[in-house]
Specification:
Elements (H helix, E strand, L loop, with lengths): L1 E6 L2 E4 L4 E9 L6 E7 L5 E8 L4 E4 L7 E6 L4 E6 L8 E8 L6 E4 L3 E6 L1
Parallel strand pairs: 2-11
Antiparallel strand pairs: 1-3, 3-8, 4-5, 4-9, 5-6, 7-8, 9-10, 9-11
Length: about 120
Amino acid sequence: QVQLVESGGGLVQAGGSLRLSCVASGRTFSNYAMGWFRRAPGKEREFVAQITWSGGTTYYADSVKGRFTISGDGAKNTVYLQMLSLKPTDTAVYYCAAAASSSTGFNYWGQGTQVTVSS
């Protein structure tokens, strides 16, 4: 059983910053990539960012490019999301995810951490 646990969410004013962390634990597995998704109230879950451990390639949603940075350590199954210049539209529950391989997609999910950005 693999568990992903997020931390670092909270309430912040617009223009502020937060850093989310996620650690995967459980049975030994080597994941191909880890990422962050979010679900705003009344909306579908959407992709935010991911990092592929082979080569350290990163991808971002257009809405967060230039403001969010994903980083981490594949060997430690740990991923971070540094969020700067936060906007009220970034308010959402943020989920950490891990992909066991390139063919599985993101198949492990955390419980989520709430990020609220006040105007």
